[in-house]
From TrEMBL:
<protein>
    <submittedName>
        <fullName>GNAT family N-acetyltransferase</fullName>
    </submittedName>
</protein>
<keyword id="KW-0808">Transferase</keyword>
<dbReference type="InterPro" id="IPR000182">
    <property type="entry name" value="GNAT_dom"/>
</dbReference>
<keyword id="KW-0012">Acyltransferase</keyword>
<feature type="domain" description="N-acetyltransferase">
    <location>
        <begin position="9"/>
        <end position="179"/>
    </location>
</feature>
<dbReference type="InterPro" id="IPR016181">
    <property type="entry name" value="Acyl_CoA_acyltransferase"/>
</dbReference>
<dbReference type="GO" id="GO:0016747">
    <property type="term" value="F:acyltransferase activity, transferring groups other than amino-acyl groups"/>
</dbReference>
<dbReference type="InterPro" id="IPR050832">
    <property type="entry name" value="Bact_Acetyltransf"/>
</dbReference>
<dbReference type="Pfam" id="PF00583">
    <property type="entry name" value="Acetyltransf_1"/>
</dbReference>
Length: 188
């Protein structure tokens, strides 16, 4: 019997050394995320953008705004392929003690379909539970059917909240819907 090799994949808390990789992951995801919302020239790119994003990530990892703010990184071998950020929810109708937020969920386009998103999402939910949140929320771009379908397929659902952002000021519009899921384990 021949065994097939398995990929060396995992999810862990991000380290300070991950800042450049997290910046690259996020900046490379933006053209797809903001397609049709922002013109390509409005998106940060180039060495200066990479340096600024790396500095922002380094500061966030070194001094999170809240003790329950966590950044998770999905790895294939030792290569970062995705990230997730959890924190207390800040929406006015949320309770920051009870409600946690999945602020960011990114998997590199070339690495999708390999289970990294599922692993990241499960690790984020486990992290939110460990931080004693009872519910998780996540804002999804209204036109991002793939992410919405992925989350709904894992038990998340729309909670009726929606918002419209202007990511580059007046004249740009990004509509979002909020999904939520219970983090409370069902008892038998």
């Amino acid at each position: 019997m021949v065994s097939s090799p398995t990929a060396d994949v995992s999810v862990r808390l991000a380290w300070a050394d991950d800042a450049p990789a997290l910046a690259r992951l996020q900046l490379r995801a933006w053209p797809e995320r903001f397609a049709g919302v922002l013109p390509p020239e409005a998106l940060p790119s180039g060495p200066e953008a990479d340096a600024a994003a790396t500095e922002t990530w380094a500061a966030s990892l070194a001094r999170p705004a809240d003790a329950r703010q966590r950044t998770l990184v999905a790895l294939e071998r030792n290569r970062p392929v995705g990230l997730a950020v959890t924190t207390p929810a800040t929406d006015p109708d949320c309770d920051p003690v009870r409600d946690g937020e999945l602020v960011e969920l990114v998997v590199a386009a070339d690495d999708r379909g390999a289970g990294h998103g599922s692993r990241l999402l499960q690790a984020a939910v486990d992290t939110l539970r460990a931080d004693r949140f009872a519910r998780a929320v996540h804002w999804v771009d209204a036109r991002d059917d793939a992410t919405r379908a992925f989350l709904v397929g894992t038990g998340w659902e729309a909670d009726g909240a929606h918002r419209e952002l202007e990511p580059a000021g007046p004249g740009t519009s990004l509509k979002q819907v909020r999904l939520h899921t219970s983090l409370v384990e069902a008892t038998a």
